[in-house]
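A quick aside before the break. I want you to see a complete sequence-to-structure record at least once, exactly as it would be stored in a machine-readable document. Don't worry about memorizing anything.
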Amino acid sequence: MVRADLHVHSDFSDSSLSIAQTLARAEQAGLTHLSLVDHDTVAGTSQASQLALLTTIQIIPGIEISARDRNTGKKVHILGYAYQTPASNLTTLCQPTLQRRTRKTLNQVDILIQAGFPLTRQAVLDKAGPTGTVYKQHIMAALIDQGITDSVYSDLYRTLFKGAGICAGDIEYVDVQDAIAAVRADGGIPVLAHPGQSKVWDSIPGYARDGLLGIELNHPDHDSSDYGRIQDLADQFDFLLTGGSDYHADYGTGPDIGQVLAPGETLLQMQLILNRQP
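That is the input. The structure line, written in tokens, reads:
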């Protein structure tokens, strides 16, 4: 029986577990297929594919692109599946995002140091994974080490990074149309991530015209009304339906890996789409 979790992160972005550790947990969860959709990077794809050969799990190349809809100003995440390596279009598009993210996070570290928090840049950099990209979660992990808080998404996180917090603010993201185009240019399938979270319902017909081929159905943030709207959109635009746990290990608050799965027909439909791609 197919058990596919197509929304999982590793320490190539903002999870606390390495790819090897993530694969081990995926095996324990009885998964047959896994997609590591690390934020704005395909750097872990080769390692994941090689390590998976030592397991019973099949890897589907994946990425989660941080984008913004210029018309609405909303942040939109585009998942890209089954792209062809080396995925040069995705790398070219996303590399500046990673650089902006690290600069922003290190600036936040400096703000916290000035505010009296017992942090150093090196302590936060030491938390980063193989790409060297630094996230807010790495700041919080360093603060946990100092005994300042006991979890990543504590009240302190919301105080510092949300609303009027001293570290609030976001970076510039790529345009959603460019994200869709880059996935398609590398032979992959662009899928809208967790629309129930981003609330971009009115924009989805436009994304379909731009080349979107799928939409994430099963996600921890979705409720019954989201499922109904997603199914209606899938029927209207013949979207591929996907799903997964959005697992970040200790850097997340959602379900464990394998507790939210893609629909049973997803992989077959994905292959049919790939077969008819030019």
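Two observations worth writing down. The chain has two domains: 4-94+171-276, 103-161. The chain has eleven helices and nine strands. We'll return to this after the break.
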